[in-house]
Specification:
The structure is a homodimer. By secondary structure, the first copy, chain A, is of the alpha/beta class. The first copy, chain A, has helices spanning 13-24, 26-33, 58-66, 83-89, 109-118, 128-145, 162-168, 183-193, 198-207, 216-219, 222-236, 255-263, 325-340; strands spanning 2-9, 35-43, 49-51, 94-97, 122-125, 149-150, 174-180, 246-247, 267-277, 280-290, 304-310, 315-321. Chain A is globular.
Chain lengths: 342, 342
Amino acid sequence: MTHYNLALLGFGNVGQSLAQLLLDKRDELRDKYQLTYSITAIGTRSHGMVINTDGLDIEAAIRLAVNGSDLSTLSTKCRPKNVFDLIRQCKADVLFENTPVNYQSGEPAISHLTFALEQDMHIITANKGPVVHAYSFLAKMAETKGRKFYFESTVMDGAPIFSLFREALPAAQLFAFHGILNSTTNMILTRMENGESFDQAVTYCQKIGIAETDPSGDIDGWDAAVKVAALVTVLMGIHLNPADIQRKGIREITIDQIQNARLEGKRWKLICSAEKKNGRVMAKVWPKLIGPESPMYAAAGTTSMVVFETDILAGLSIVEQDPGPQTTAYGLLADFLNAVKP
Amino acid sequence: MTHYNLALLGFGNVGQSLAQLLLDKRDELRDKYQLTYSITAIGTRSHGMVINTDGLDIEAAIRLAVNGSDLSTLSTKCRPKNVFDLIRQCKADVLFENTPVNYQSGEPAISHLTFALEQDMHIITANKGPVVHAYSFLAKMAETKGRKFYFESTVMDGAPIFSLFREALPAAQLFAFHGILNSTTNMILTRMENGESFDQAVTYCQKIGIAETDPSGDIDGWDAAVKVAALVTVLMGIHLNPADIQRKGIREITIDQIQNARLEGKRWKLICSAEKKNGRVMAKVWPKLIGPESPMYAAAGTTSMVVFETDILAGLSIVEQDPGPQTTAYGLLADFLNAVKP
């Protein structure tokens, strides 16, 4: 039986779902994987920071977070001055970094993850920023340290994409992929097919928590481009800047276009694609008319999917239906189990 | 750098493709995985057996097989009396078993694999028989021996299914799945949609090598049922006999039914499904009308797919387009790399 101390940066929907999943799977992981764990620290931007190296009361932490209360009341043993101090003092074996993405620089997440690696922790994140802006640096540093840098939940939530190539597809060379990687725009397009206006569809997505107050990151294809950049950088081994991706969002697609497509039995989708040729990558995020002969036609609502073309498997698709915060949390848990497996 | 001796039982399409893939990936595997390999033995039913513990000439072996010649001319160093003698003498670290499936008993493959485990080899097979009839026995024996028993290529060719759950989806509980697992019937139905008769479609499948001279194993849903049984047995942990699966093939589907479905924008598919409830499994292979809202609608020709429902991911689908012998060979190679990975 091995015990792991876990630290959580960010305790929003995903962080709370991870904490709940760690509670739910406690017995299963003890029995099947011979491992136990405590959460020894939680750091948030607006709801305080807390450390207890003997293990925090996870249920109480979730209750406080749901109520919007300050987490620091959970323990008075130790008061971290800042996030670096929290990382230094929390005695964690694994740091989960789940703060909001900074598309421009990936900071401060990159600095936090780097510092955690320096303290010999495995680092696991659902934050695309560090993957797009510092994958190579963090992966090399993790290797040097004998630790793992995993980030399954950054693309398609908890569906196995990075671990698929890392663990299940050895010696497969990826040369192209295409798919639907942004759930929010896909949901908006599906709602518009069913008669809602663009604004109504956006409002709905905000209500169910899949669109931000400012939804432009999704609508203008920026989130999709960042995911394409992450896939290209990690799986094709070529660093790609999201800004270098040809990108057009769904803002200009009209109700008329969508209804005309419907009459033809087709659907507008925001399609991501990338192709590697002669050591260079061409990548694109662009709206496209899709017919029922394509597997992407049936991907409605928040469903996302990707079709991989490799030297070995002509077309291998992964489709994730109806993801939620628990799905993202599962990606983090799977990363944890893969990071510490013997 | 680690060197592995490999033995191959069965040297038909799949065995030859594996040999070719081992040639093609030789440099890549040496550079990226620090491993080298020789094929030290090949055993076939009708084209002889050959052993050379210094390594056979793989290109020559493929040439002989393509020409239908006897393989024993490849080396005169050692004459195995039978398959057991070949396994005993070949000094292999890994046995690849790719002989035709025996649906009724899984023999003689089970005995050969057992004997190879006794000689401390990893055992890898594309043969469904041993998985359906002896999974529990072989898996336990492999564990005791500190060896691996892998069989990725038994379901959906080289697409990662078993390795997905084993390596990339830790702590996910599978409670249901459905999909299209038999390529031949799917191709027949696609050809009938396009105007061919049942007999014409079967003849086409025989011509391209995906249907046997007696195609009833595919057409009557038997192959699909065996795959369902393999998935249930391995991934749900409940032994299921293929004969206990409710099964109906595609023999009774008429051209009229298919064309009527087409007019409604639907397609007939042979759908596999299984659901675990209260420790029991209900499983079925049955023709079903599928509309374009289902991801299975777009799965045409030899494409196969499966949708997994787990406690964590509501719906995770794997789709494999256009598989061939090389795809199956890749599943075997991936098993090899996963079996020997440090």
